[in-house]
Amino acid sequence: MSVHKMYIVDSNGVLFNCSVSSSDSPPWSLEFENDVLGRIALAGPDLFECLCQLRHWLASKDFRILVNGARIDAWPSSMARQMGGARKLYVTRIGSRAVFEDLVPIFGETTADKLGTVKEQADYHKQWLESLS
């Protein structure tokens, strides 16, 4: 298991420390821990899906997690999901193909202004795909 120290932010913009422990190989899982919200363990087909589950849970409590995997413009490739459990994902731009330099770690820190909901992220990904055709 890898341990990642990071932040969550509430609806008032207040930051709170948290940690996420993630599996390093299948079966893919993560465990979130925070003094305010407690602990939750999640499992899925890859770390991106585990993170999406965590984001839904956090959203239900009016929190967001400040990681690259929650960026509206970030999405893992099929290969990253199948071969690496989606530990890395691409930051995408409408009209531009993703390149190696666009790869970022899923649990790398980001800022609140780059975040979106799980649905907003999926919608952006669909829009990005359509912009390439």
Could you explain the architecture of this structure?
- This protein is of the alpha+beta class and about 130 residues long.
- It has one domain.
- Helix content is about 25%, strand content about 30%.
- The protein is built from 3 helices and 8 strands; from the N terminus they run ββββαββαββα.
- The protein has helices at about 45-60, 80-85, 120-130; strands at about 1-10, 15-20, 30-35, 40-45, 65, 75, 90, 105.
- It has a 5-stranded antiparallel sheet with strand order 4-3-2-1-5, covered by helices on one side. It has a 3-stranded antiparallel sheet with strand order 6-7-8.
- Strand 2 and strand 3 (about 30-35) form a beta hairpin.
- About 25% of the residues are buried.
- The mean pLDDT is about 95.
Sequence-ordered SSE layout with sheet pairings:
Layout (H helix, E strand, L loop, with lengths): L1 E9 L4 E8 L5 E7 L3 E7 L2 H13 L3 E3 L8 E2 L2 H7 L3 E4 L11 E3 L12 H14 L2
Antiparallel strand pairs: 1-2, 1-5, 2-3, 3-4, 6-7, 7-8
For the biggest β-sheet, the strand order reads: 4-3-2-1-5
List low-pLDDT spans.
Answer: none
Helix content: 25-40%
- Give the beta-strand count: 8
Euclidean distance between termini CA atoms: 39 Å
Shape: globular
Domain tally: 1
Tell me the fraction of residues in β-strands, as a range. Answer: 25-35%
Total of helices: 3
Largest sheet: 5 strands, antiparallel
Rounded to the nearest angstrom, the radius of gyration is: 14 Å
What do the pLDDT scores average to?
95
Helix/strand structural class: alpha+beta
What is the N-to-C order of secondary-structure elements (H for helix, E for strand)? Answer: EEEEHEEHEEH
